[in-house]
């Protein structure tokens, strides 16, 4: 997988949330969590696996909502950050952090109701194999996001330290068909790239986001969105 050494570094893990989800990045965090909750609701009592859980943004949110969640990640440093967030925290469901490889998930077939993978597919060397493995351990639902090829994301993609894979809608449709998944819903968002929001204060990011939502809400510009949130069902 791209950038594994970079991603697993201790200093990257310590600064990960602050660099990506503070300042204008708070708007990204809010929208991504909204997309996950909308796809999975009702969350309570669902058995969920999050692949590439990082510092636990989604795992903690889902556990607070009453789900039984396993967060899996290749980075011990990221997992440690996630475990620190659970200290002195009242969680309605259950939460376990586990180190593991997304290409060889350490679970039996049909083990989870839902499997999610956010901020993952742009790093995947073999997206079909990873999606097939996600499907294997899910008995109901797969939720993931992709960064889109024909969008502003491509402008700065080359500068990312760990590289990034961009997808067209047709490529994802083929992946779903090959892995025997049925698309339930897809949402497109963020005409402006994530990197711009992370680089500016929230006071400036908020009006830009409002403009982005106003223009992006028109179906004619959906194909220019930077990110898509996919909700698929196991057949």
Automatic annotation (TrEMBL):
Highest taxon of the lineage: Archaea
GO terms classed as biological process: methylation
SUPFAM superfamilies, sorted: S-adenosyl-L-methionine-dependent methyltransferases
Keyword Transport (UniProt): no
Gene Ontology MF term list: S-adenosylmethionine-dependent methyltransferase activity
Span of domain Methyltransferase type: 49-139
Gene3D superfamilies xref list: Vaccinia Virus protein VP39
Keyword Transferase belongs to the record: yes
The entry's keywords: Methyltransferase, Transferase
Name this polypeptide is given: Class I SAM-dependent methyltransferase
